[in-house]
Amino acid sequence: LVRGVAGEAFQTPALIGEGVDPHLFRPTRNDVARLLRAEAVFFNGHRLEGRMNDVLERARGQGRPVLAVAETLPPERLRPNEDYPDAADPHVWMDPTLWAACAPPVAETLARAR
């Protein structure tokens, strides 16, 4: 989604590649350094990146725009998460209508990054 909104105005590397379980991903030192150098950081949210919270908070603490993309949606549009009652089902990209609704907050965050 970020690549689609940003176009060629930003480089949009992904930290977690295809085939990697984001629930279990642990960032390396190089991953942390990349995040802390980024102009803006985007992640799904709703506990999908379970082991990334500390790093994401560090990036936010350094004044970088950090956006939990799926958490921009109104809670009433989301499915409940049976494992975590305080979070919604994080797999919102599987519903194109919901995922498209995340585009405006992504665009706003990209605009603040420049």
How would you describe this protein?
With 114 residues, the chain is mainly alpha-helical. The chain has 5 helices and 2 strands. The chain has helices spanning 2-6, 29-37, 53-61, 96-101, 103-113, and strands at residues 41-43, 66-68. α3 links the parallel β1 and β2. The longest helix has 11 residues, at 103-113. It is globular and about 35 Å long. The two termini are 18 Å apart. The model has no long low-confidence stretch (mean pLDDT 92).
Q: Which features would summarize this protein structure in a list?
A:
two-stranded parallel sheet, mainly alpha, 5% strand, globular, single chain, 5 helices
SSE blueprint:
Elements: H1 2-6, H2 29-37, E1 41-43, H3 53-61, E2 66-68, H4 96-101, H5 103-113
Parallel strand pairs: 1-2
Terminus-to-terminus distance? 18 Å
The topology string of helices and strands comes to HHEHEHH
**Fraction of residues in helix:** 25-40%
Approximate strand percentage = 5-15%
What's the main sheet like? Answer: 2 strands, parallel
Mean pLDDT metric = 92
Rg over CA atoms, rounded to whole Å, is 14 Å
The general outline is globular
Structural class: mainly alpha
Tally of separate helices:
5
Placed side by side, the strands forming the largest sheet appear as 1-2
Number of β-strand runs: 2
Detail the poorly predicted runs: none
